[in-house]
Specification:
Elements lengths: L3 E5 L4 H13 L3 E6 L12 H6 L3 E5 L5 H11 L3 E4 L6 H6 L1 H20 L7 E5 L26 H20 L2 E7 L2 E2 L8 H13 L6 E4 L5 E6 H13 L7 E4 L3 E4 H10 L8 E4 L11 E2 L4 H7 L7 H16 L9
Helix pairs in contact: 1-8, 3-5, 5-6, 7-9, 7-11
Length: 338
């Protein structure tokens, strides 16, 4: 019998790339959890498989509805579970803290309980936390190791602290095979436009199309990030669950290219046909009340365990992201200028 993988948040950027990776590199059956209202934009290229019921199957459930989760887990009984669904926008969490905490902490708890309550069932579970748990890190703690103190700087980051701790709790208390990752900044095609680099790429594509003035609106450009490609990230997640998984372990995962957000924006602008005309303007509404400004990881624990290393260069990631938005903008749809 073929192995089965279950991906929560299958219609998101990471979930859709996770599906792409498993489809190409395994013979597993792939089940994706989505909500009835989920946009299918990121998985359009997979819908033929879904419609024909060939290897990819969508199941409707919601992290805020435990009955739906119990139903899906009992039906599918996956061998591997990639928990990628979340309210994942840090800035939005300042406006919607309760929804963020409920979805990310209690939603993770509901999922793990749905798994725990099935007798004689021990899947391998990946819980996706975030590097945002570390928040505002002192310079002498950089690069950030796994034992760095948590100092979350947003309701989103606080919710991911809860997610992180729940994963370890269920492994230690109930013997479940749960591993937690703190993935640092990862991006690429299909990245939501509420994230800085994707917002910049979308604005540049709209400028090139003549839809907006040649001004890129930004938030904090001085924050430092280490960037990875989402396609490297999902390969890391696959290796996490298949290369000698250790219950209760937790890992930093991230890229190797570090720069300020402003330098990342300059890289995107350098690819533009309008690079000589584009101006940059900081917009107050785009600034977070508090920012996690030194997001630089030490990933040696994970790389030593799995031998994973990022392969896709930063410039390729940025160009692919820009081309993704160029393709979207070319379809003559209306877009929010956010």
């Amino acid at each position: 019998m073929k192995k089965r993988a279950l991906i929560t948040g299958v219609t998101g950027m990471v979930g859709s790339h996770m599906t792409d990776f498993l489809l190409e590199n395994t013979d597993w059956e792939i089940y994706g959890i989505c909500r009835w209202r989920s946009s299918m934009d990121n998985v359009q290229h997979l819908l033929d498989y879904v419609n024909k019921k060939e290897r990819i199957f969508f199941e409707y459930a919601d992290l805020n509805d435990e009955i739906s989760l119990i139903s899906v887990i009992k039906k599918v009984k996956p061998d591997y579970i990639f928990h990628l669904a979340a309210q994942s926008y840090p800035k939005t969490s300042f406006d919607s803290p309760i929804d963020t905490l409920n979805t990310n902490i209690l939603g993770t708890c509901r999922l793990l309980e749905a798994i725990r309550l099935i007798d004689d069932y021990k899947p391998i579970i990946h819980i996706c936390a975030s590097s945002e748990v570390f928040g505002r890190v002192k310079k002498d703690m950089v690069p950030i190791k796994e034992d760095c103190t948590f100092h979350p700087a947003s309701p989103y980051a606080i919710s991911k602290v809860g997610t992180d701790l729940l994963g370890r709790y269920y492994a230690e208390a109930f013997g479940m095979i749960v591993m937690t990752t703190r993935m640092f900044t990862h991006t690429g095609p299909r990245r939501g436009d509420v994230f800085a680099e994707s917002s910049f790429a979308k604005q540049i594509a709209m400028i090139e199309k003549g839809l907006i003035e040649p001004v890129v609106k930004t938030g904090n450009l001085d924050s430092t990030r280490t960037y990875a490609d989402v396609r490297d990230a999902v390969r890391a997640y696959y290796m996490l669950v298949t290369k000698k998984p250790i219950a209760g372990e937790y890992y930093n995962i991230g890229g190797t290219y570090t720069c300020k957000v402003g330098d990342m924006l300059n890289t995107l602008i350098s690819f533009s046909t309008m690079k000589n005309e584009i101006k940059i303007e900081v917009e107050k509404e785009r600034l977070r009340p508090i920012d996690a400004d030194l997001q630089i990881p030490d990933c040696s624990k994970f790389t030593e365990h799995t031998e994973w290393v990022p392969e896709i260069p930063f410039e390729t990631t940025m160009l692919d992201l820009l081309n993704y938005w160029r393709n979207n903008v070319s379809k003559d749809k209306l877009f929010l200028t956010r």
